[in-house]
Amino acid sequence: MRISKRVLSILLTLALTLGLLAVTPLTINAASTYTLTVNGGFGGGNYEPDARVVISAYPAPTGQVFDKWVADDGAFDNDESATTTFHMPAAHVTVTALYRTATAYTLTVKGGMGGGNYEPDARVVISTYPAPTGQVFDKWVADDGAFDNEESATTTFHMPAAHVTVTATYKTAPPVTGYTLTVTGGTGGGTYAAGVSASITATVPAGQVFDHWTATGGGFADPYAPSTAFTMPAANATVTAVFKLAPPDTYTLTVVSGAGGGNYASGAVVTVTAFVAPAGQVFDKWTMTGGGTLADEYSASTTYTMPVGMASVTATYKAAPIATYTLTVANGTGGGTYAAGAVVVVTADAPPAGKVFDKWTATAGGFADTYSQSTAFIMPAGAATVTATYKNEPENTYALTVANGTPSGYYTAGSSVTVIADAPPAGKVFDKWTATAGGFADAYSASTAFTMPAGIATVTALYKAAPPDTYTLAVVGGTGDGNYTAGQSVTVTATVPAGKVFDKWTTTAGGFADPKKPTTAFTMPDSSATVTAIYKDVKYVGLFGLNTKYESNFWNWFKFVALFGFIWMWFI
């Protein structure tokens, strides 16, 4: 039997297809999740593509209001609502809550209620006052903005970005005529005249909650209240109560010292995050009241499962631990674990036979006295090793101990050792050296030579109370210069030049007992001072060719009067 080429081609294609299917593995992709990051709000996490995620903005900063959500991918149910649903894309995505400066404008309502300060585009419910006798409400008028229904006595006004006045206008009441009001989903239906306010009440079905009222005409005092007043239009009207599924009960979660608080249903898993720890502290753990469950109470960011009821979780902190480092002491004692800056006493072991202590060495840190067998070591910010080193014992050497100074060590008899006193304590000055043996070149010098005796010796630096501070007094044109303590009384004396007489004293500081006396007491200030004697020229009076000093000096005046008397008697 011959097979046509067309049939053969079909058979070969089928065989190849089946072969490829046999060797091609079947791959099933597991569902992928992507990260949603929420800047300025709650709801972040890992979600599958097209997941519906409820996100909420943090409370607006002072002086601002929520503006809108923005995202680099995905979509919002309502990007102008602080709490909305986000449609997750098949990619990592960041959504950000934006805020704007709160701006309010004044709404003035003439002939009605609802006036106040509102932001642009705010929806404000306004209502008329009762109509004057013989009149009924006609309509609302405004110089800006818009109404949901300008012919309804109670309506919603759309606030413009400006101060605005709305006015309720009235018209003559028409003859009383009854119109039918039908209430669907509630009670209050009947026959009413136009302009009459009818009380209506919604009848809420099980498992639902009241949402709002709708009407074919007329207006509501509050369309979002289950029991409200309805203003009857001049026509038959039907009002309908609209319901929605009752949301699950929510409870308040308060997060103290952290973020994540809000209102949540029982069983909701909430991410709570502790604030940054205060200076010198670290996060310790979470505590809670009202029940609930923490995934990890010792983690600064963890999840909390909401209980049936209000609850509170609190982030607690503890003092940050102080870092410590290991000190190893070779050939001595004092090793251990210490904080940086700790003062540790290290002591060298007794020298081996034929040896004497030489000095300390260290890989880091510092010593109070490197050459003292027992000294203080300042711990560095890291592990350190200090080592006591020894040297061969010299012949005929003796131990010298320097108290309140340096250097202690071993010296031969007769050797000259320069001893230096430590800096004096506050309020003290160096006084002198004392020694149990040996001698000093100058026992009253803080740094001097000490002659080592043929035996051990101890020299001690002694201190005494510091003398009071003195200040320099310079006397210009007189005597009394010197150095004096503050408050000391100093006698200053003017040195009067020829042809001058003393006038007064002046000073840069301090004071005089009498600045007009050439010799007086000066009280020294707590600083250096200069006092100056001021002089003035001698005045003369010419009389009959004689020059006689016209001064307050008694003797000069006596001579002048005697001369005048002699001349007077001569002429008599």
Describe this structure in words.
By secondary structure, this protein is mainly β. The protein folds into seven domains: 37-101; 105-172; 178-245; 250-319; 322-393, Immunoglobulin-like (Sandwich), CATH 2.60.40; 470-537; 540-571, no CATH class. The chain has two helices and 58 strands. The strands form 15 sheets. Strands 3-1-8-5 form a four-stranded mixed β-sheet, with no helix packed on it. It has a four-stranded antiparallel β-sheet with strand order 2-4-7-6, with no helix packed on it. A four-stranded mixed β-sheet has the order 11-9-16-13, with no helix packed on it. It starts with a helix and ends with a helix. The model is unreliable at 15-30 and 542-552 (pLDDT under 50).
Q: In the CATH hierarchy, what is the architecture of the largest domain at level 2?
A: Sandwich
How is the largest sheet built, in terms of strand order? 3-1-8-5
How many individual β-strands?
58
**End-to-end distance, in Å?**
198 Å
Helix content: under 10%
Could you name the CATH class of the largest domain? Mainly Beta
Structural class: mainly beta
Query: What is the typical, i.e. mean, pLDDT?
Result: 89
The 3D shape can be described as flat
Question: How can the largest sheet be summarized?
Answer: 4 strands, mixed
Q: In what range is the share of β-strand residues?
A: over 45%
The DSSP helix count reads: 2
